[in-house]
Amino acid sequence: MSKPDYYEVLEVEREVTTVELKKAYRKKALEFHPDRNPDNPEAEERFKLCAEAYSILSDPQKRQIYDRYGHAGLGGGGGPGFGDVGDIFSQFQDIFGDLFGGGGGFGFGGFGRRRRDPNSPTRGSDVRTDVTLTLREAAFGTTRQIDLSHPSPCEACRGTGAKGGELESCGTCGGRGQVARAQGAFVMTTTCPTCRGRGARAKEACDECEGVGQVDSERVVKINIPGGVDTGQSLRLSGRGQEGTRGGPAGDLYVTVHIERDEDFERDGFNLLHRLVVTYPQAALGAKIEVPALEEDEDAVQTLKVPSGTQNGETLVIRGAGVPRLNGRGRGDLVCIVEVEVPKKLSREQKRLLKELDRSFD
User: How many other CB atoms sit within 10 Å of the CB of residue 352?
Assistant: First the structure.
């Protein structure tokens, strides 16, 4: 059975922002939360599906893949497919921490857990982004300015979601964040439905963030990229992520590197591969040929000696002409793969000379 569209699951447009996405997921999670739908397998499956959709769409890289290739781009099966509701509370504790009191209710880690003080400092979330470099930029390092767009704590309410930051003790749970209910001979403790486990509630929702506690923000970050980085590697910038709330520390910024295709070289770790086209006479007689050099000057060249009798497909290696190593200890090699060029058109004189050469081999 094919999976439904993740945007339709959360009832959002494809252009949804991160703040709007989180708000939509909170709404859906509240609707299908197991504590609100006891003994309802269908609601639990919807709860899992909403978490799966959010786990993909909230990750910039996974969302880009999904937008382009759909479920097939994520391995055919879509998202992680949460089998245990407890896994959802664990993975999205930053959301459930204030939505459901940090545990999610009885049976999913909420029973007996101490409620977090809604006014305590909270660390900001990590921010992830991508940067695309040329091969030379990746090899020798560079400095880039990156435009970031992500949610930040609302200054008007200090991230509380309450107008003026004013919270009051929840009257339903008495500030405990949990309520008890009797089921036969047992007393079950569940998340307070009024304050969602925080133990406090807003006197009035903040006008700026509509009670979410976050707003979209844009900023420019300057980063220094070390020489030798490769595609898929991530750079971690401590404290450059989302701001914390109520004096909490900022999260980290992770920048994933992607390298553009180069006309002259193909990278293989710290080695470089180069397609070296030679004529038949050059391969047979030997020659000195200029080949591109990986230097900051794009027009730089170096001389390579092609031995006589070189065969098609052979490799000629220039030691230390590859990519500088990250630890600063030398460079990789330049591996030239020989491709003997066979002319498609010959003049009458060239044909005559080749025939003579051919007869000389008899």
Answer: 11
Residue 96 near residue 108 (C-beta atoms within 8 A): no
Among 42, 66, 91, the domain-final residue is 91
- Segments forming the whole domain that contains residue 7: 1-91
What SS3 class is residue 5? Answer: coil
Which helix (H) or strand (E) segment holds residue 223: the answer is: strand 214-225
325 in a structural domain: yes
Blockwise average pLDDT, block size 10, the chain, 362 residues: 84 90 88 80 87 88 83 60 45 45 39 50 85 94 91 82 78 79 63 75 82 84 92 91 82 92 94 95 93 91 94 95 86 95 89 87 74
* Boundary-marking domain end, from 72, 91, 110: 91
Phi, psi for residue 190 in degrees, rounded to 5: -130, 165
Distance CA 102, CA 120 (A): 14
C-alpha to C-alpha distances, 324 to 135, 140, 245, 295, 320, nearest whole angstrom: 11, 7, 41, 10, 9
d(CA 362, CA 359): 6
Q: Are strands 315-318 and 301-306 parallel, antiparallel or unpaired?
A: unpaired
Q: Would you say residue 312 lies in a domain? A: yes
- Domain total for the chain? 2
Q: Rounded distance, CA 330 to CA 351, Å?
A: 48
The pLDDT score that the predictor gives to residue 2 is 66
Angle at CA 305, nearest 5°, toward 303 and 306?
130
State residue 213's pLDDT score. 79
Contact (CB, 8 A) for 130 and 256: yes
In a domain, 27, yes or no: yes
- CATH number, domain with residue 68: 1.10.287.110
Half-sphere exposure of 100 (CA within 13 A, CB side): 29
Residues 248 and 94 sit within 8 Å (Cβ to Cβ) = no
